[in-house]
Every structure is written in structure tokens, then in C-alpha cells.
Design a protein that fits this description.
Layout (H helix, E strand, L loop, with lengths): L4 H13 L2 E2 H9 L6 H13 L3 E6 L2 E6 L3 H17 L3 H10 L5 H17 L1
Antiparallel strand pairs: 1-3, 2-3
């Protein structure tokens, strides 16, 4: 399911601390965004319509929780990026970052470890 950038910010809050009320989500986003309460409630409603989240009545309020798992969202977004920009291939993505000097020594160590693990599994 397509999740907008703004919706993903709301999802991130819910992935970290669900269940939350709308007021809790507003408070959590107050420091990092300049969004007003109506904007956040609109985003929550959009996510409800997409069935990315669920709402459960708790007295006079609703508590929101994610239905979409973060790992599934990350997989979908990563695949979309690879497909759009790199013909679905990982190597050109890594090459792009290495050409731009964005790979730290830690990144290189982790990539080498991952390649070794993949070689052992093959």
C-alpha cells in the first residue's frame, strides 16, 4: 500500500509506541514537526482508510496501532527504490554511494561481512 512521506512520519511514531491516542501522536510529533492537530488527525484517518492502522475505542478516545509492519513497509520502499532507480539491482546502488563517498569504514565492514555470509549460504 502506498504510504506518503507525511503518513510514514505518523507510522514511525506508532511503530515505536503503539497503542497511542490522537493526542499522544500530536504530542509525539510536536517537537519534530510544525503540524497542527487537524493535520495529524487527517493523516491518521488516511492511514485508517488504507488499513495501515487500526483504531480501538478506549472510553471517549481511540487508540491507534499499526497493522502494517515496519519491516514490510521498509521492504516495499526499498524494492520500489531499487526498481525505479537501479533496475532492481543492489550492486549499482552500492556503487552509487561509494562513488559519492557516502560509505564509512563501518559500512564497508558490514558489507564485506554480508557478502561473506551470502557466499557461505550459496
Amino acid at each position: 500500500m502506498p504510504i506518503s512521506d507525511a503518513e510514514s512520519v505518523v507510522m514511525d511514531v506508532l511503530w515505536r509506541r503503539a497503542p497511542l491516542s490522537a493526542d499522544d501522536v500530536v504530542a509525539a510529533l510536536a517537537a519534530s514537526t510544525d503540524w497542527q492537530e487537524p493535520t495529524i488527525k487527517t493523516l491518521l484517518n488516511r492511514l485508517l482508510k488504507k488499513r495501515a492502522i487500526a483504531a480501538e475505542r478506549d472510553g471517549k478516545r481511540y487508540l491507534y496501532r499499526p497493522l502494517l509492519k515496519r519491516a514490510d513497509y521498509v521492504h516495499s520502499e526499498s524494492k520500489s527504490l531499487l526498481d525505479r532507480l537501479f533496475d532492481g539491482r543492489v550492486a549499482p546502488l552500492v556503487a552509487h554511494f561509494s562513488e559519492r563517498r557516502k560509505l564509512s569504514k563501518k559500512d564497508l565492514t558490514e558489507l564485506k561481512r554480508l557478502i561473506e555470509e551470502l557466499d557461505h549460504d550459496a
